[in-house]
Design goal:
single chain, 59% helix, Arc Repressor Mutant, subunit A, two-stranded antiparallel sheet
Length: 187
C-alpha cells in the first residue's frame, strides 16, 4: 500500500464521487474487508457492492490482499487519496463545490473542538471554503506535476505547506479576516 495517491483526472474523480464508492473507501480506511462485510456495513446487496469494488479495483484505488474463508479481502491501495478535481465537466465541478464545502465544515469543526471561539460559523465556513478554493486553484499545476510521484504522508504535508507558502502574500487579507473570526486577532 502506498502512503499517498494524487488524483486529478476527471474520470477518476467521477468514479470516486459516486456515494457508495466513497463510502467503501471510507470503510476500508482502518482495515481490509470482504464484500460481505462491506455489504453488511453499508446495508447494500452484495452484487451492488461487488460492482463498485470492481470499479475501484480496476481504477487502482483498491487491491486484493488476502482470502478469508472463501472471500477475497480488499484494501485501499493508498492510505491517503489527495483528490484535486480539475476540469470543467459538470460532474467534476459539482463534486469540487461539494468537496470544498465539506472540507470547510470539517476545518471549522476542528477549530471549534480545539477551543477556538468561532464568532459566526456560517461566515467562517464560507471564508474557509473560499480560501481552500483559491489555494486549490493556485496549486493546480504543481499538484498535477506530482500526480505520479510516490511520497509519504509527511512529504505530502510539507509539499502542500510549501505551495501555500509560495502564495502566502496573496492570502494576507483573508488570513486577517479568518484570524478575527476565530479569535486570533493578536496572533
Amino acid at each position: 500500500m502506498r502512503d499517498v495517491i494524487v488524483v486529478t483526472e476527471p474520470d477518476m474523480i467521477k468514479l470516486l464521487a459516486e456515494e457508495t464508492r466513497f463510502k467503501i473507501l471510507s470503510q476500508l480506511r482502518d482495515r481490509p474487508m470482504t464484500i460481505s462485510e462491506l455489504s453488511e456495513r453499508l446495508k447494500r446487496d452484495r452484487s451492488t457492492i461487488y460492482r463498485h469494488v470492481k470499479a475501484l479495483e480496476d481504477a487502482g484505488f483498491l487491491e486484493k490482499v488476502a482470502k478469508e474463508r472463501n472471500e477475497v479481502l480488499y484494501a485501499r491501495s493508498a492510505r491517503i487519496f489527495l483528490v484535486k478535481p480539475y476540469g470543467e465537466d459538470e460532474e467534476v465541478v459539482a463534486f469540487r463545490i461539494q468537496y470544498l464545502q465539506v472540507e470547510a465544515e470539517r476545518i471549522c469543526s476542528i477549530l471549534k473542538r480545539a477551543g477556538f471561539e468561532i464568532k459566526n460559523e456560517e461566515k467562517t465556513v464560507n471564508l474557509i471554503r473560499d480560501i481552500l478554493r483559491e489555494i486549490e486553484e493556485k496549486a493546480r499545476e504543481p499538484i498535477k506535476k506530482v500526480e505520479n510521484v510516490e511520497m509519504s504522508e509527511i512529504e505530502l504535508f510539507h509539499f502542500l505547506n510549501i505551495l501555500v507558502f509560495l502564495n502566502s502574500c496573496e492570502f494576507c487579507d483573508k488570513a486577517r479576516q479568518l484570524k478575527k473570526m476565530i479569535g486570533l486577532d493578536g496572533y
